[in-house]
């Protein structure tokens, strides 16, 4: 029996999460995943803050990049980043719960475009991220034995 698109997305995410030490080290949680979508979140802790006492942009980028990775890898194909860009809108503050919502804009050939909106617990926009993906060889799991 063939797996549904939702099941494929979940199993792909489970396989990736098992090996994703960077997202775990960040303190991120994988809150949702579906075909072409993912949501990750993290709480800004003292070790995430910079010399301005706000969340370092690199951590916000990492959270967005991880959401992008789970969204573009949700089809049981191995996908990597080809190009990413972020625009910071407002600071993340100590104690904020940052949420990165990734959604697929387009998938064509071996390439894809994904947008990630990073907001805080009040829904205020913190950053907008755009990721371009590229499919490489391989699968996250064997669908024939799933």
From TrEMBL:
Name the UniProt key words of this record, in alphabetical order.
Answer: Hydrolase
Q: Which gene encodes it?
A: paaI
- Please, which domain of life does this record's source organism belong to? Bacteria
| Protein's UniProt name | Hydroxyphenylacetyl-CoA thioesterase PaaI
A single Gene Ontology MF term assigned here is: acyl-CoA hydrolase activity
Asked if the Swiss-Prot or TrEMBL record annotates the protein with the keyword Hydrolase, the reply is yes
Domain (Thioesterase) spans 54-126
Q: Which family does it belong to?
A: Belongs to the thioesterase PaaI family.
A Pfam family it matches: 4HBT
């Amino acid at each position: 029996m063939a797996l549904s698109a939702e099941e494929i997305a979940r199993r792909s995410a489970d396989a990736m999460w098992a090996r994703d030490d960077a997202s775990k080290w960040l303190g991120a949680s994988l809150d949702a995943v579906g075909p072409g979508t993912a949501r990750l979140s993290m709480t800004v802790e003292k070790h995430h803050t910079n010399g301005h006492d706000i969340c370092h942009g690199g951590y916000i980028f990492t959270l967005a990049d991880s959401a992008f990775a789970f969204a573009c890898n949700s089809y049981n194909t191995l996908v990597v980043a080809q190009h990413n860009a972020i625009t910071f809108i407002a600071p993340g503050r100590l104690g904020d719960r940052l949420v990165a919502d990734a959604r697929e804009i387009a998938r064509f050939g071996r390439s894809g475009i994904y947008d990630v909106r990073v907001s805080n617990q009040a829904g205020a926009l913190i950053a907008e991220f755009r990721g371009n993906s590229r499919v490489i060889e391989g699968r996250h799991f064997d669908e024939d034995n799933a």
